[in-house]
Give the backbone structure.
Amino acid sequence: MRACVDIGGTKLAVSLAAPGSRQLLHRRAEPTEKRGAPDAVARQILRLLGEACAEAGMGLDRISGVGVSSCGPFVVRAGGIEVSTPNICGGLAGADQGLPNDWTAFPLEAPLRAHFGAGVPLRVENDCVAALEAERRWGALQGVDDCAYLTWSTGIGMGLCVGGRVLRGKNGNAGHGGHTFASGPAEGPTCGCGNVGDLESLVSGTAMARRFGAQGFADATTLLGAAKAGNARAGAIVDELCRILGRGLFNVIALLDLQAVSLGGSVFWHHREHLLPRLQAEVAAHLPALTRGVELRPAGLRDAVGDFAALALLE
Ligand SMILES: [Zn+2]
């Protein structure tokens, strides 16, 4: 059996899959551990995998490969990839975020490597890089060598592929497009990462609630529901959000000369009929030599992209 691990800011999930199978078995999910020492998350992963293996009637030592899809960013220390994200690490987010720890990063690759040993393949990737691999293997990006995956959810993230090669970068952080700037230095709200006016601070699900709650749109679902129902104020806000994210997509398409982008994430997925044409129109409005024929596609794995992301790292 291979082990699949999905680490999010809120939830941590593990499952098992037989070689050659896409069926995820013996799934376990819990709130991501945020108390105790920084190795608490790695110990939680091993405990949940132990439970899944027990249910499968086998020992943890029978795991033949481990794929880990994790929220980022990553930092690389001597022992391997550590995760340094303000959604889990209280030492980054500041006391006002109320996280019960003072971590600035938690170890991931080293404790898993120490447990499973050098003989078991272990691959740790950013969740959007892993989602891109899943979309390229089973979803809307099959056979497309120059492509990207974009998630529009509580945050904004991307996975990038050029010439058939998935981009990782020096620390595995390639594709952190949510934290690229979309407005000038003195404009816009502040992102959880500290940037003022980056894409995530302007258009993410979290940003929608923060920016438009006072106007009666408590969250992304309320705002998009009102826009689709014909509320003019909500409609104008959503059009502007699509203009901003569409320009962000154009930037990536122009930088990498992409053929297609697959889109997922809860905000996009639940409102894709409304959002997709607006994003496509914004992309197509600029520099036809770069954007003609470029397709924005709903994720082929639909709202299960995340479930298959870790598995795609193992095939
Ligand atoms: Zn940011």
Q: What stands out?
A: The pocket of zinc ion is lined by residues 178-179, 191, 193, 195, 198, 200-201 (CB under 6 Å). The chain has twelve helices and 13 strands.
